[in-house]
Amino acid sequence: MSGEEPVPGFGVAVVREDGKWRCDPMDSTALRELDAAITELRKTRSTGAVFGLLAIDDEFFLVLRPSPGGVALLLSDAAAALDYDIAADALDVLRVDPPEDEEEVWPEGSLDILADLGLPAPELQVIIDEVDLYPDEQLQMIAQRCGFAAELTKHLDTILQ
């Protein structure tokens, strides 16, 4: 998918501040352009955790977590880079070559991206391995494990109607 055509899916900026979670919508350009998603997350000011969850076209998800030294990210399916510019950009950031075959599904990036928020790498791997689930369902499992499922569900109820 390239160009300016809309990409189905959603982006959510997740913020944890003073022990409370908040989910804010991300602009639709965040689904097309990795730089746009990173820039939007960097504009979110918080003393706590800030990260983005992107579900793209019922195919894959991205977790982005900006830090002063760059950005940590996790792409749920490296093969998505064969069809989606944002996934190819994610692999570029990770300095990983795209796969040659679409048949294999494996994540690339930092599986421990949310470990400090209650989701260790092995558990995140289990969620990613649930290939029969849609990306929004996988992200809801992530939210459940980290403790912001109610906030994410409220947010999704408003954008997915």
TrEMBL record:
InterPro entries: tRNA_Adeno_NH3ase_assoc_put (IPR023869)
Superkingdom of the organism of origin: Bacteria
NCBIfam families xrefs: tRNA_deam_assoc (TIGR03941)
Entry protein name: tRNA adenosine deaminase-associated protein
